[in-house]
């Protein structure tokens, strides 16, 4: 397992583990993130986590769909693959591109921006289709244009849903519209003096300092 950059892996793993419910797909995601966290621990520290925890469920298409949960997940995946195959693939690629920007360019995953962009594109498609859509006698031509428009709207929507599925809501910045990372402020001499302290140019004294007598009233002894 390669050790990559930490992108809130442990927090996302805990969030998915708390919210995956009956979903075996989400359970596999939590196990993959946990495996990545333990690989990073082995790389940085001498303490070795239990290797038995590195077991990961097989992908969905390699599992035996006997349980109702696995059958339900397989049905949903087949419906999505039939309805928006290009949008699904494009959303996954766009998701990978956005994730690589965290945390250098983005402080979190912009879930709201992606989901609402998909909803806006879908609404725009519904409004413009009656104006430019002219169905013909061929069923293939009649269904091709709405299907192609659905692929475009599905790209940001799928990327946003991937963000939720991969546990990014646990990062507070992911609730912002576009959480840009602020540029690093240049360190000035005044900032350096506040952090490190100013230079002390006073040399050591020649004689040890003595405490002065405190003034007061004289008394007879």
Gist?
With 221 residues, the chain is mainly α.
How is this fold's topology laid out?
Blueprint: H1 9-19, H2 24-44, H3 68-83, H4 85-99, H5 111-132, H6 139-165, H7 189-196
| Residue windows where pLDDT falls under 50 for at least 5 positions | none
Which secondary-structure class do the elements indicate?
Answer: mainly alpha
The average pLDDT score comes to: 82
Gross geometry: elongated
Secondary-structure element order, N to C: HHHHHHH
What's the main sheet like?
A: none
Content of β-strand: under 5%
Q: What is the CA-based Rg, rounded? A: 30 Å
Question: What is the tally of helical segments?
Answer: 7
Distance between the termini: 86 Å
Q: Considering DSSP H and I runs of 4 or more, what fraction of the residues is helical?
A: 40-55%
- According to DSSP, the number of beta strands is 0
């Amino acid at each position: 397992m390669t050790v990559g950059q930490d992108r809130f892996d442990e927090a996302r793993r805990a969030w998915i583990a708390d919210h995956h419910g009956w979903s075996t797909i989400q359970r596999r995601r939590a196990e993959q993130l946990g495996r990545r966290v333990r690989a990073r621990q082995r790389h940085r520290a001498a303490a070795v986590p239990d290797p038995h925890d590195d077991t990961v469920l097989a992908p969905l298409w390699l599992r035996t769909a006997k349980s109702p949960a696995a059958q339900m997940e397989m049905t949903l995946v087949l419906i999505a693959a039939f309805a928006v195959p290009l949008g699904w693939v494009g959303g996954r690629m766009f998701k990978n591109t956005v994730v690589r920007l965290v945390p250098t360019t983005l402080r979190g995953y912009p879930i709201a921006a992606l989901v609402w962009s998909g909803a806006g594109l879908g609404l725009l498609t519904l409004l413009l289709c009656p104006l430019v859509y002219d169905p013909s006698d061929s069923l293939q031509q009649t269904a091709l244009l709405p299907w192609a428009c659905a692929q475009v709207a599905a790209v940001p929507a799928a990327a946003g849903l991937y963000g939720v599925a991969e546990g990014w809501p646990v990062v507070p910045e992911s609730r912002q519209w576009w959480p840009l990372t602020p540029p690093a402020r240049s360190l000035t001499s005044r900032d350096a003096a506040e952090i490190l302290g100013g230079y002390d140019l006073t040399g050591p004294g020649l004689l040890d300092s003595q405490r002065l007598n405190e003034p007061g009233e004289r008394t007879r002894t």
